[in-house]
Specification:
Length: 285
């Protein structure tokens, strides 16, 4: 059945091209071109896809931290430049090393890791473990009450959305709590080499200045995360859009399906009745 309405002209279906486009995007996944993140619904991602997403997110967070410490002396995460230069330098070096580790792991995963159709692998275990250790170290170095801790918290929520399976989510959450608890006990016992930089830099500054610093820190954190979140939502809805288009158009002729054509005619008739305009309907069955 072919239906043509003057008010809503038919358009060519895109559902037949969607699988080819998605397959081409996955085939071009390499460190020198193509999409930076996996496409398609997260429910269909394998272990490599999930690991790549976590690696990219963690590398982005560390890039923000490294830039803050290497260029801005810790601003706006620290209230002021700490007097202990060695602590600041050590934290910057450790953050840079962690950033290089995550970038290297990300490039290696995209370039050399063999993509299999499984959802569990050693790569995902290593990625989650490294994410927990890195987040714990950052929270210790910068202090538990800074904006970076909020950054790690939001990252943990995104991590849960990416992992999806409950067992992996609980493993990540349990590992995070255990790691933070051990770090707290080690700090209380004086085993760690230095106090957090937030404690070192703490004093009683002007409240307005602190408020401005926290606002800038929030902007540096949540704007990049908003971009990541937008991508995650868009790929989440790709399969939904593909199914919707497949239900609306015939894959062979490109014409409206019977059910969608009836709904289009009903909307057109209601609109014509409200506007008092003329309506022409041509049906070929």
């Amino acid at each position: 059945m072919a239906v043509s309405l003057h008010s809503e002209p038919p358009r060519l279906p895109s559902s037949s091209k969607a699988p080819k486009t998605r397959a081409r995007a996955r085939a071009s996944l390499n460190p020198f071109g193509g999409p930076l993140l996996p496409s398609g619904s997260p429910f269909g991602w394998n272990a490599c896809d999930r690991a790549i997403y976590v690696q990219f997110l963690t590398a982005l967070l560390l890039l923000i931290v490294v830039f803050s410490f290497a260029v801005l002396d810790g601003w706006p995460f620290l209230l002021r430049r700490p007097d202990d230069e060695m602590a600041l330098r050590t934290t910057t070096i450790l953050a840079a090393v962690a950033l290089l580790f995550w970038l290297g792991l990300y490039v290696w995963t995209r370039r050399f890791y063999v993509r299999r159709g499984i959802k569990n692998s050693w790569l995902l275990v290593v990625t989650i473990t490294a994410h927990i250790v890195t987040g714990t170290a950052v929270c210790y170095a910068l202090g538990p009450y800074t904006a970076v801790s909020g950054l790690i918290t939001v990252a943990a929520l995104l991590l849960g959305m990416v992992l999806l399976e409950r067992r992996w989510l609980w493993i990540a959450v349990g590992g995070w709590l255990l790691s933070m608890s051990l770090m707290h006990l080690a700090s209380k016992a004086g085993v760690l080499p230095f106090l957090s930089l937030f404690e070192v830099s703490f004093e009683q500054p002007d409240i307005a200045t602190v408020a401005v610093d926290r606002a800038v820190a929030a902007a540096l954190i949540y704007i990049p995360l908003a971009v990541i979140m937008d991508h995650l939502i868009s790929v989440w809805r790709q399969d939904e859009r593909s199914l919707s288009e497949a239900a609306q158009f015939d894959s062979l002729t490109g014409a409206y399906t019977r059910g969608f054509a009836m709904s289009v005619m009903e909307r057109a008739i209601l609109k014509a009745g409200r506007d008092g305009s003329r309506l022409a309907v041509l049906m070929l069955d």
